[in-house]
Every structure is written in structure tokens, then in C-alpha cells.
Design a protein that fits this description.
By secondary structure, the chain is an alpha/beta fold. Helix content is 46%, strand content 18%. Strands 1, 2, 3, 4, 5, 6, 7, 8, 9 and 10 form a ten-stranded mixed β-sheet that branches. Strand 2 and strand 3 form a beta hairpin. The longest helix has 25 residues. The N and C termini lie far apart (57 Å). It binds ligand C2E and magnesium ion (MG) (3 copies). The site of ligand C2E has 23 residues, from strand 2, helix 3, helix 4 and strand 6. It comes from Cuneatibacter caecimuris. Keywords: Membrane, Transmembrane, Transmembrane helix. GO terms for molecular function: cyclic-guanylate-specific phosphodiesterase activity.
Amino acid sequence: TVKNGSNPNYVFYNDSIRKGLWEEKGIESKMADALKNHEFVVYYQPKVNPESGRAAGAEALVRWRMKDGTVIPPDKFIPVFEQKFMIGQLDRYVYEEVCRLQRQLMEEGLEAVPVSVNVSRLQFYDQDFISKYVEIRKKYDVPADLLEVEFTESIVFDNEELLLKTVQELKQAGFSCAIDDFGKGYSSLSLLKTLSVDVLKIDSFFFDNGDDEERDMEVVHGIIDLVHKFQIRTVAEGIENMKQVEYLKQMGCDYIQGYVFYRPMPEDEYAELLRKEQMQKEGSGYADRDKC
Ligand code: C2E
Ligand code: MG
Ligand code: MG
Ligand code: MG
């Protein structure tokens, strides 16, 4: 059954299955087995440059595809992985999948675009988090500028010092850093003063077609102008219609991520999209040359 109005990529399990799954003892070993058996699959959602209409990057989003074909969305299992302190393993698995794909695309001669991975705030407490990521990147020989790390500002409430230190180290290791879900919850503008991130992802909360769209867009405009002063690029998340795209383009929003362009898609489809876009680019290049 597909839940109304949600991503059709998900085949939805019903509540009784979920209850059974989460309440059962031994969920930890189930999760560990699922990691070992590659039941987690990584989907890719392009971030589109509104000027060119092309994929300028992508976000890696994990799904749990169980043996029986049931696909569980991340919101349902990420919190469980956090609770059991297994989120580091899962995040690293996703990240390694991304490195593997980036290497594969490079081998194919495709121009890979940066892919971002989500990193749980709990990983910031792992002393070895960054060195593990660097090691994996080196194993696949992927340049750091093809990889980006997304995290939410919620970390700041635990430990602002830790956040600043970790971001600094990530930057030193060559990763670009993005604040995810900005504007949802207690977004702290003072954070922008101290934190040297590369990208700010503006939460879909502003684009939910609420009762005052004009006002939402004014707020978004203000955020974009403000962070551009700090050379921070902006991604608008959860964009579902062309009217919003037009607004955002006028405001100079750098990238748009939303169903209006693409839903998260399996790896093969994503690679195919890059091939298609790059063939078109080469194609037009030849056409130009013919004219000379
Ligand atoms: P997020 O990082 O903010 O990712 C964006 C979410 O918005 C994704 O949901 C994406 O599918 C959805 N989305 C994108 N465009 C649209 C749109 O136009 N309309 C609507 N309604 N939704 C849109 P998804 O894939 O279900 O992921 C949910 C959250 O789960 C993510 O939010 C992220 O916080 C977390 N997550 C996903 N993968 C990972 C992972 O590998 N590690 C960790 N720690 N968290 C992850
Ligand atoms: Mg994200
Ligand atoms: Mg987000
Ligand atoms: Mg979100």
C-alpha cells in the first residue's frame, strides 16, 4: 500500500508490522544483520541549478529495503539507530556507498557532481568520526570536494564548542559542510556569525503552501541575502511547484531540491540522469563546432 500523498518510492508497511519490528527484543541484531546483508539502499536526489536546470549535486538518502521487499523510510529507523548507538555504522555505510558510486562514475569518465551525506549529531561525539571518513574517501580515491556533510543545527544545543571544532576539522579535511533543515525549530542566526559552513539548506517548512506564502518568501529572501554576504550557498528543500522555483530563481537561490524536479531515485537512475545531461552538453558543444 502506498501512503497518500507521500513518496511513491516507498512501499508502506502497515502499523502492525512496524510495531512488531520495533518492539521486538533483538532489534539491534536485526539492524546489524541488515547492515551486513546490504538491506540499506542509498537513493539520490539531485540538487538542481535553477539557471541551467541541471543536477549540480545530489543528496544521499537511505532506505531500508527488507528481504520481503518492504521499504521503510529513514524517519522510521534513524531514531532507532540513534537510540541504540548504531547510527555511526549506518551513516558510514551510506557514506561508503556514496564514495563507491563517485569512484564508479569517475571511472566511467563522467563528471561526478558533489554528493552530500547526512550525519547524525551523535557522530560528533565520536572522536574518530572524521578520520574514519577520510580513510574511506582515500580507499575509493575520491576527492574531498565531491563529498559534502549535512548536519542539523540541533547539535548546537548540546555543545556549541564541539560543533565549531568538528566543523573546523571537517573543513580542514576538505569536506564541505551544510546546515540542514535551517529555519525549522530554533534556528540560531548567531550561529552564522561563528560557524564557517559552505551551504545552508532552507527547510521545506517555508515552502509548505501555508496560508501566507508571500510572507514565507520574504523570510526566505532575507535568509538568502544574509548568508550570501558570508559566501554561503543556499539550497531550498522540498520545492514542489514551478511558482516557487521562479521566486527562488529571482532571489538568487543557488540550488533547488524537491519533487518539482526529481524525487530521490535509485543509484542506476541517478547515474543515467548524469549520463543523459552530460551527453546533451557534449552534443550542443559539437553543434557549436559544426557551425565554425
Ligand atoms: P533531510 O536530510 O532533510 O532530507 C530531505 C527529505 O525531504 C528527504 O526525505 C526527501 O525525500 C524529502 N523531500 C525532498 N524533496 C521533497 C519535496 O518536494 N516534497 C516532500 N514532501 N519531501 C521532499 P527522506 O528521504 O524520507 O529522509 C528523511 C530524513 O531522514 C532526512 O531529512 C534525514 O534527516 C534523514 N536521513 C536520510 N538518510 C539519512 C542517513 O543516511 N543518515 C542520517 N543520519 N539521516 C538520514
Ligand atoms: Mg539532509
Ligand atoms: Mg533537510
Ligand atoms: Mg528534514
